[in-house]
Amino acid sequence: MIKNFKVDFIGIGASRCGTTWISKCLAEHPEICFSKKKETHFFHKNYRKGIQYYKKFFKHCDKNKIKGEFTPGYFAVPGTAKKIFDCFPETKLIVSLRNPIERAYSEYFYNLTREIEDKTIFEEALRGRFKNKYLKRGKYYTNLKRFLDLFPEENILILVYEDIKENPVKFIQKIYKFLNVDPTYIPETLKKYVNTSSVKRKIYFIPFLNKTIYRIRKKHNKALVIIRKVSHKIKLSKLICYILKLNTKKSFTKKEIKPPIKTETRKKLREYYSDEINKIEKILNRNLYFWK
Question: How far is CA 157 from CA 160, 178, 273, 289, in A?
């Protein structure tokens, strides 16, 4: 436990499982102070920066409110559970899970509509550069066990994403009760769907220019860290952002229609996740037939 500083809850995942919607519902509650950014990425990307860096995300918080954040990336990264436990062994953890096949496809389609993914066929993407992200993030028991081995069971709330549609009020009240805040509060976000496949489509003067720049950034990230330190003085980062903006004609909101997953693909993924789902069922003491 860090002296004079604690985080009362941390949302650990999983990605594409309603975490943005949950975060907004939590941030609206009058007894909760949510981090300035939904995803701080501290425990899996910025840990070396130290706890003082992490504290900055909560410096706006009133002492009478509980504090927390939600970074879905924590869930599937080995070592993250230990880092969280070392800093805040008494914190409460929130994890939301959905049908792992739908989760994988949702992440793929999300990346595709934002031009992060260049494979227009799902089956090809499952063999591509994001293969591990699409598949391993859905190995819920494997990822969850790292947290269960460290934190007491009563400090981990496991949610099922599909319950949101069934009864969103009951779903969010379950979280509020877990955090010991007023469960009768109804947030405005309860009526909205957040981070769906309705996305802003952009049209570019020079096709693929922005996409190429993003991919170079991703591929050569370590080299760019050094370059950024030098380029900061000559404002190169601002120049790149200006080029990206200049190349964008306009954007418009469009409801994306997802093509169905092929029957054979779905069958293979069911087999891939079968054992993981069975183990999660035992933990929850619940039949997750709608995942099978």
Answer: 10, 7, 21, 20
Residue-wise pLDDT for 8-43, tens only, equals: 999 999 999 999 999 999 999 999 999 999 999 999
Read off the tokens for 222: 């370590």
Q: How many CB atoms are located within 10 Å of the residue 270 CB?
A: 15
Q: Are 187 and 28 in contact (CB under 8 A)?
A: yes
User: Cα separation of 33 and 268, whole Å?
Assistant: 43
pLDDT tens for residues 178-223? 999 999 999 999 877 655 554 455 545 555 555 666 566 555 555 5
Contacts of 194 (CB under 8 A, 6+ apart): 20, 21, 24
CA distance linking residue 35 with residue 40, whole number of Å: 8
Helix (H/G/I), strand (E/B), else coil: 181: coil
From 109-118, 191-200, 221-230, the region with the lowest mean pLDDT: 221-230
In contact, 255 and 201? CB cutoff 8 Å: no
- To which H or E segment does residue 265 belong? helix 263-284
Domain ranges of the chain: 9-196+262-291, 198-255
On the CB side of 131, CA atoms within 13 Å amount to 6
3-state secondary structure of 197: coil
- Residue located via tokens 């069934």: 166
The answer to whether 10 and 74 are in contact (CB under 8 A) is yes
pTM of the predicted model as reported, rounded to 2 decimal places: 0.82
CB neighbours of residue 234 within 10 Å: 9
* Contact (Cβ atoms closer than 8 angstroms) between residue 214 and residue 116: yes
Instruction: Give dist(CA 104, CA 269) in Å, integer.
Output: 10
Q: Which fold has domain 9-196+262-291?
A: Rossmann fold (3.40.50)
